[in-house]
Amino acid sequence: MADHYALLGVSRDASPDDIKKAYRRLARQHHPDVNPGEPGAETRFREITIAYEVLSDPQRRARYDRYGTDEEPAAFSNFNGGFGGGIGDLFDAFFGGQSPFGGGGRDQRAGPPAGEDLETVIDLAFEEAVFGARHDVDVRTFATCGECEGSGASPGTSPQTCPDCGGAGQVRRVRQSILGQMVTTGPCARCNGLGQVIADRCRACAGDGRVRDTTTYAVDVPAGVDTGTTLKLGGKGAAGPRGGRRGDLYVHVRVAAHDRFTRDGLTLRHSQPISFAQAALGTKLDYETLDGPEELVIPPGTQTGTVVRLREKGVPEVRGRGRGDLLIELVVETPSDLDEEQEQLLRQLAELRGEPVADPDHGFFSKLRSAFR
Fold first, then answer.
1. Is residue 254 helix, strand or coil?
2. Which one of 70, 99, 130, 205 is least enclosed by Cβ atoms within 10 Å?
3. How many domains in the chain?
4. Which residues touch 20 (CB under 8 Å, ≥6 apart)?
5. d(Cα 55, Cα 7) in Å, to the nearest integer?
């Protein structure tokens, strides 16, 4: 059995994040869709997936680190000349083969493996991310074979119980140690742990019970998502081999930028220019929010940098627990294209307020203004 750490290319003390990153990188590299027709591609992808499933589960990883397998460890036997077959024989003698701790015992049967989890990306407009939307996504996946209905056997036939493992999907191995006999279990080589063998394979799926297909799913995007949000669609991944349950589909969200608003968590921000006269005298503006028009009140004497808050006009919380605000920063624009009459009125204002200004006929500012006309 290949070493799970070596398969993923990580050290034995790798963190869960390192293991996840390594799996995603290898899954993209070795996915059968990326390597069509390449011998062994599906087997390699399946080995990588199994390694990730073991190492991403803390309990299974701990067992694997200790025993070299994530199967429940077999007990040492022959203590005091007792049961020679390990703890399984103890359960046979006292509990009829069933473990008293739950989960079944020797009679537990194997089942087909689950299908792979899939990933895709969905692109949203800014407004769709704020208010939610319904989008269709096309996913290249494995679907249950319609010819054999997932069994993998030709129509009119059915899979048979594996003669090597009796349908358990596992075989027991006994070896001698200094403490006596040690019993271990491992996947059956004949049926690959499925517990069944197929004499006459379905021609449509070559006995796998599934075929490649493109499936369209409608994704309900909740209000408030942002770039980096991942939506999980349970049971929408690839169909498992030989009737195994479907994996899950993970939809990664990517949101386009808006031409006016920027987002900061649940808060929307916007810089609104106003004129010198509007800032000095005050006014009311028709302001367009994502929800529609609002009246924006500019008080007299407003300075650049003043922020007006429109409550609950921002982004909804994804879990439906309120909504952020819209913050509008007011920016006073200095007029730069005054005609003669407008300039004269401003000079009169400056004179009334006792504010010195540059002479209109000479000086640095006059030359600078002329250069930009």
1. strand
2. 99
3. 5
4. 52, 56
5. 11
Q: Report the C-alpha gap between 319 and 322 in whole angstroms.
A: 9
The pLDDT, as a whole number, for residue 58 is 86
**Type of residue at 188:** C
Q: How far apart are CA 16 and CA 306, in angstroms?
A: 47
Q: Given its phi and psi angles, is residue 86 left (phi above 0), alpha (psi -120 to 50 degrees) or beta? A: left
**262 falls within a domain:** no
Same domain, 298 and 328: yes
Residue 69 main-chain phi, psi, to 5 deg:
-150, 155
Domain range holding 193?
Answer: 73-108+160-197
Each residue's pLDDT tens digit, 352-373:
999 999 887 644 555 555 555 5
Report which of 173, 160, 135 is spatially closest to residue 252, judged by C-alpha positions. 135
Q: Mean pLDDT highest for which of 35-39, 51-55, 192-196, 207-211?
A: 207-211
Q: How many Cα atoms occupy the beta-carbon half-sphere of 176 within 13 Å? A: 0
Per-residue pLDDT reduced to its tens digit, 159-212: 999 888 888 888 888 777 666 677 787 888 888 888 889 999 999 999 999 999
The Cα 109–Cα 168 span in angstroms is 4
